[in-house]
């Protein structure tokens, strides 16, 4: 199989999309040829059968040049690919489905987010397949939907309890610093529970990308200072996918407050690293997990999150190990990267 992949960034060091480098590596294992068209090209180290073509954002070219290069590449290399995989950028399907269908290419769109837009509706009509992680990841009714899970690299995300400091109860959360991630609920819950949590440390890993996000970060820091939590909460900043791993391995609990409505990959990466998790993300309910209620808290409910954090803190060492080993094995058996890519390729026939 020869595959054309379209993605926003091809940069293994990117704090948000760096994981996609491993996806491309796995595609390369299963395909004769892989061509990647990306908006931005950064650092990568890919197999010889992968060719990366940038639309030029890293060099500051105009949007008109992006579009010109896009059509140039998909036409120029038309004989070097049979199928198309578009990752979270439905605009590419809208712009070029007429040409790909004329050329006889099969189009697959990956979309895993709770939001529905006009462009998504248009893309759904034009694509052949829609890949998503869970039922909540694609909320349009369509016979084209294929629920294939997520892809977690168990060779990278793995447990190492020897890195934990037993004198500290450490909580970690990972994600863009944005209101939709609801960090204030975590902060308020810490203020409520910290007197019972002993030596508590919290790492927030992520970047404030937009001006609104940066203002939100400043507001969070004011809240933290007002509750005298400066010595507890640490904003780590953006890290690459692989750089996150030691933080997870050193932690006791992963908390996810996201309101995106789709299965957050960061939750599964934390599980793979042997962490128990707490989330308000309803996508978790679609997973075949035991005792899911123990992993969930009510969205925006400070008291419920505080109570669940305290309950996790008071868990016996034996129960904690059992839970963490169960969650790690669940991710390895259900959401491995090789399994995900195999499912995607199989759907192209």
TrEMBL record:
One GO MF term: glycosyltransferase activity
Domain of life: Bacteria
Pfam family membership, one: Glycos_transf_1
Positions of transmembrane segments: none
InterPro entries in the cross-refs: Glyco_trans_1
Ranges for domain Glycosyl transferase family: 163-315
PANTHER family, A to Z: GLYCOSYLTRANSFERASE
Name listed for the protein in its UniProt record: Glycosyl transferase family 1 domain-containing protein
